[in-house]
């Protein structure tokens, strides 16, 4: 036996300590997930009272549905654009805040505050900011009528969504990246400076390589989070419209299941989405994670 | 001996409990002034008698109310009475979760219900499944003050006249002559019904679950194409084209001059107009050359859910009886603009001496609209996954309004996607007969 297992004198104590949390996960995660997978093999009547086993038929139908693929494609576009921006923007801010520039200390605090804002609240605020008549882009519309119309133009609505997501992601990613930057010993900067490396050179050759673990973490979290957490924003800003242009998978599942009472269709899509997220995360660890050097 | 006394006492208490008050719950989905009116009715019922007590629980919207009802029913913890909206009718009928209201209350004179409000909630045999409650229908609203300013003396009644008026308004510098949100209920269902057009075969599904959508082949397709053209011309605006971002708000603020809207939004509009503009409300416009048929009932009706105690069902009956009274219906109409559902209410309004009062403005016109000559295609809509189809319709037509596809292509797509929903619904309820 290794020394680690001697940490607890009673062998049931660790189990007991973990049990409440495991119970919560079981009730709020495993049970619903199991239910979703179960329903995805049935045609389920909304009020119960009858369900018909159809095997893989639901999957065959969903996978041959062009609407599903369009929503999946939108999800991927959102994931790539929104999450890369949600890491890039905090990275720039963190690099700036890490330097001993004027106002960097208050800026660090101010940038963290939005973490306390719920997704739906962000949605409400951004819906207002990007309103074509009263928002910040309204003056643009006065000169070029109709150029900014998120209520009509799908691309504009999508941009609004990405912007809101990136804004909402700043605080957490900023904190992680800044912490990474601050843990780089000053001596490394000084050594690089003495070797004649300018500020830009030091960012690319010293800082970025050394905060790779932090960047990787934020990127992995962002990738998975952007798939699921866009819901609150879509629900408050666009309702999936116009014309379905912002209907990401997570929102489509909600609409099909809870507005349309199509429990089987929504469950099938949930199962597919979950497998997708698992594959994605696993792929990141397998291909990206390996290249990261955690030693310093 | 002692045990038998105890048993007797227990039995007595049980009986006493059964006779005594039933505390029942009623779930509804409305908000705003409608919610206020519903709560007032609940309070009035509780104050009027001491036998039963109803607790009215607002759920925030029709859809949320339905979601919660489904969850509650599945977990065997559901209310006795629940309000559902028109589009959920078929789901409820096939759910086996509700008892037809006419079975519970066989002695009520159900024929006193106006035909237009009945047809939607009837079985194929003509039995009423739920009690129509907050009934609305589509009406045509104008801002008479703005119309007169643009030199339009006569309130338009046909689409030709509406567009003619819209052109005059635009020429007079009005930015938003006619406003709509392109909602399925307004631009497709009510339009098709009053023009006598089906949206699906088998009389919109009344004759069987194997119906198919036909909306892309009827005159409704031409109308929707017209709307796209009129929007390009600047005569018709959508939600997103208005400053208010919402068509009723845009009309109420005076931003837009004409709209097709639910009678249920009348009270809010009239209040917003007070002292600023004159409002008119009439039947929704027709195309020239088409005979006018009835508009469909909208809003919602009340269902009695299955498997509750007799005392609770008694409470539910008492509450339903209460709501059916002309005075209660008048109060709801006055507060909201919803249309009365039984024929005796119009008489009661006339007798009250306030027949011409603005608070009853929607009553006569709404009933008149719903009581126009009917066809088999204007009874209502009985199509599966219909709520989901409404989403599909909106999604496809929005793309057409944005110019990404033609309206005809949008409707063809809506038909294809809609038929797929119908087939799946048919399969989900395999072997179930339409009541």
UniProtKB/TrEMBL annotation, chain A:
Part of the ABC transporter complex UgpBAEC involved in sn-glycerol-3-phosphate (G3P) import. Probably responsible for the translocation of the substrate across the membrane. Belongs to the binding-protein-dependent transport system permease family. Pfam families: BPD_transp_1 (PF00528). Coiled coil: none annotated. The complex is composed of two ATP-binding proteins (UgpC), two transmembrane proteins (UgpA and UgpE) and a solute-binding protein (UgpB). It is found in: Cell inner membrane; Cell membrane. It is a multi-pass membrane protein. Keywords: Cell inner membrane, Cell membrane, Membrane, Plasmid, Transmembrane, Transmembrane helix, Transport. InterPro entries: MetI-like (IPR000515), MetI-like_sf (IPR035906), UgpAE/MalFG_permease (IPR050809). It comes from Rhizobium sullae. The chain crosses the membrane at residues 12-30, 76-96, 117-138, 158-181, 271-289. This is sn-glycerol-3-phosphate transport system permease protein UgpA. Residues 72-282 form the ABC transmembrane type-1 domain.
TrEMBL record, chain B:
Residues 1-21 form the signal peptide. Pfam families: SBP_bac_8. It is found in: Periplasm. Its main location: periplasm. Keywords: Periplasm, Plasmid, Signal, Transport. InterPro entries: Bact_solute-bd_prot1, SBP. The complex is composed of two ATP-binding proteins (UgpC), two transmembrane proteins (UgpA and UgpE) and a solute-binding protein (UgpB). Part of the ABC transporter complex UgpBAEC involved in sn-glycerol-3-phosphate (G3P) import. Binds G3P. Belongs to the bacterial solute-binding protein 1 family. This is sn-glycerol-3-phosphate-binding periplasmic protein UgpB. It comes from Rhizobium sullae (Rhizobium hedysari). The lineage of its organism: Bacteria, Pseudomonadati, Pseudomonadota, Alphaproteobacteria, Hyphomicrobiales.
């Amino acid at each position: 036996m290794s020394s680690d297992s001697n940490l607890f004198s009673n062998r049931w104590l660790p189990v007991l300590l973990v049990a409440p949390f495991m119970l919560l996960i079981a009730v709020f995660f495993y049970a619903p997930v199991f239910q979703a997978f179960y329903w995805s093999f049935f045609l389920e009547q909304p009020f119960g009272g009858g369900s018909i086993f159809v095997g893989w038929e639901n999957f065959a139908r969903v996978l041959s549905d062009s609407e599903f693929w369009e929503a999946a494609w939108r999800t991927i576009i959102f994931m790539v654009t929104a999450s890369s921006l949600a890491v890039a923007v905090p990275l720039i801010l963190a690099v700036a805040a890490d330097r001993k520039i004027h106002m960097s200390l208050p800026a660090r605090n101010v940038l963290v505050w939005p973490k306390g804002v719920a997704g739906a609240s962000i949605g409400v605020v951004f819906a207002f900011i990007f309103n074509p008549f009263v928002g910040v882009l309204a003056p643009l519309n006065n000169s070029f009528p109709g150029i900014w119309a998120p209520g009509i133009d799908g691309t504009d609505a999508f941009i609004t969504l990405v912007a809101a997501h990136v804004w909402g992601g700043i605080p957490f990613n900023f904190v992680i990246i800044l912490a990474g930057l601050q843990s780089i010993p000053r001596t490394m900067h000084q050594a690089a400076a003495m070797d004649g490396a300018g500020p830009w050179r030091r960012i690319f050759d010293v800082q970025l390589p050394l905060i790779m673990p932090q960047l990787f973490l934020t990127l992995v979290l962002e990738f998975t989070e952007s798939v699921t957490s866009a819901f609150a924003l879509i629900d408050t800003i666009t309702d999936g419209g116009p014309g379905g242009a912002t209907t990401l998978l997570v929102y489509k599942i909600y609409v099909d299941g809870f507005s349309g009472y199509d429990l089987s269709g929504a469950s099938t899509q949930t199962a597919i989405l979950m497998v997708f997220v698992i594959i994605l995360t696993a792929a990141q660890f397998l291909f990206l994670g390996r290249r990261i050097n955690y030693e310093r | 001996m002692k045990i038998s006394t105890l048993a007797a006492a227990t039995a007595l208490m049980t009986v006493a409990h059964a006779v005594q008050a039933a505390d029942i719950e009623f779930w509804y989905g409305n908000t705003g002034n409608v919610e206020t009116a519903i709560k007032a009715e609940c309070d009035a019922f509780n104050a009027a008698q001491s036998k039963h007590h109803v607790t009215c629980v607002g759920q925030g919207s029709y859809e949320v109310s339905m979601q919660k009802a489904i969850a509650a029913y599945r977990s065997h913890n559901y209310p006795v009475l629940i309000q559902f909206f028109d589009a959920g009718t078929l789901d409820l009928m096939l759910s086996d979760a509700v008892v037809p209201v006419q079975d519970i209350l066989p002695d009520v004179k159900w024929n006193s219900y106006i035909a237009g409000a009945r047809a939607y909630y009837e079985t194929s045999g003509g039995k009423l499944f739920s009690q129509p409650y907050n009934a609305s229908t589509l009406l045509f609203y104008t801002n008479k003050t703005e119309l007169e300013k643009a030199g339009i003396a006569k309130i338009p009644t046909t689409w030709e006249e509406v567009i003619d008026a819209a052109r005059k308004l635009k020429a007079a510098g009005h930015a938003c002559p006619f406003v709509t949100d392109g909602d399925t209920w307004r631009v497709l269902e009510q339009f098709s019904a009053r023009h006598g057009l089906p949206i699906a075969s088998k009389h919109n599904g009344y004759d069987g679950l194997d119906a198919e959508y036909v909306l892309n082949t009827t005159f409704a397709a031409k109308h929707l194409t017209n709307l796209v053209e009129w929007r390009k011309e600047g005569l018709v605006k959508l939600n997103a084209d208005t400053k208010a971002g919402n068509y009723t708000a845009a009309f109420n603020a005076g931003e837009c001059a004409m709209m097709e809207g639910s009678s249920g939004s009348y009270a809010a509009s009239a209040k917003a107009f007070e002292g600023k503009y004159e409002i008119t409300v009439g039947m929704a416009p027709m195309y020239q050359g088409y005979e006018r048929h009835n508009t469909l009932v909208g809003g919602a009706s009340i269902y009695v859910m299955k498997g509750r105690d007799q005392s609770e069902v008694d409470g539910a009956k008492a509450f339903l009886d209460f709501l059916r009274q002309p005075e209660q219906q008048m109060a709801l109409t006055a507060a909201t603009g919803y249309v009365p559902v039984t024929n005796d209410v119009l008489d009661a309004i006339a007798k009250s001496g306030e027949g011409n009062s603005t608070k009853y403005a929607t009553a006569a016109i709404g009933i008149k609209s719903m009581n126009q000559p009917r066809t088999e295609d204007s009874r209502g809509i009985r199509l599966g996954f219909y709520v989901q189809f409404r989403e599909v319709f909106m999604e496809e037509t929005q793309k057409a309004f944005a110019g990404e596809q033609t309206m005809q292509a949008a409707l063809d797509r809506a038909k294809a996607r809609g038929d797929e929903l119908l087939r799946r619904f048919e399969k989900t309820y395999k072997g179930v007969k339409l009541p």
